Amino acid sequence: MGRRSYLELRLEIERHCFSREHSPVNVDRLSKDLYYRVGKRLIDLVGASALLLLTGPLFIAVAAAIRLQGDGPVFFVQQRTGRFGRRFSMYKFRTMVPNAEELKESLRKHNVHGDDSPDFKIIEDPRVTRIGSFLRRTSLDELPNLINVLKGDMSLVGPRPTSFHAVTYHSSHLPRLAGKPGITGLWQVSGRANIGFDERAELDVEYLNSVSLLSDIRLLLATVRGARDGAY
């Protein structure tokens, strides 16, 4: 797949969203739905602001713990793929050793999705630090994502943004990019964190085709329960 401009990529994503061949997302419905256009953003702003205020002391404590652990930045900033393929900087607390990206290629053979897959995940990743393991288990590493929600890059609920660029997506995965990415979503709360990208994309499309205030509230509550129980 050759490199395409953002406009070309967006047009291709929209074509696949409307195509019946690939479990399409109804982009026209999303663009006209009052909750998705206005209500969802309002909830994102209020919710993210409230959560940042409530977790302020925890935010500071986590940052201090990472700093005390040794050298390296407190935050991990990585380019992620957002709505219609737009790239943005996503913020997380750093959970790995500072040279984690340099070690990635040597660990690719352990990728649970296959060594040739751009979707990279290792069970018991040796790059994860001690405090990082705790942060991941409790999902506290995701707290800085709230900054992305306030900026408008992300929503509280939506398809999880990928680290790999949309130009590497198979055409059947493009419909998941019709919606704004989120901190949590359907596949995360379904107890299927280790599923392949094909299934994740299908669940993301399922969410976008049925998004509503009630479904978002349910997913947020399920996320809180999962984080409390260490499910993620």
What does this structure look like?
The protein has 232 residues and is mainly alpha-helical. It has one domain. 47% of the residues lie in helices and 9% in strands. It contains 10 helices and 4 strands. Strands 1-2 form a two-stranded antiparallel ribbon. A two-stranded parallel ribbon has the order 3-4. Helix 3 packs across helix 4 (56-69) and helix 3 packs across helix 7. The chain starts with 5 loop residues before the first helix and ends with a helix.
Chart the SSEs and their pairings.
Elements: H1 6-18, H2 27-32, H3 34-54, H4 56-69, E1 75-81, E2 87-93, H5 100-103, H6 130-138, H7 145-151, E3 155-157, E4 182-184, H8 186-189, H9 197-210, H10 213-229
Parallel strand pairs: 3-4
Antiparallel strand pairs: 1-2
Helix pairs in contact: 3-4, 3-7
String of helices and strands: HHHHEEHHHEEHHH
Number of beta-strand segments: 4
Q: How many domains make up the 3D coordinates? A: 1
- Helix segment count? 10
Strand count, sense and closure of the main sheet?
2 strands, antiparallel
Unreliable stretches: none
The averaged pLDDT comes out at: 86
The neighbouring-strand order within the major sheet is 1-2
CA-based gyration radius:
18 Å
What is the SS-derived class? mainly alpha
Helical proportion? 40-55%
Distance between the termini: 33 Å
Indicate the proportion of strand residues: 5-15%
Spatial shape: globular
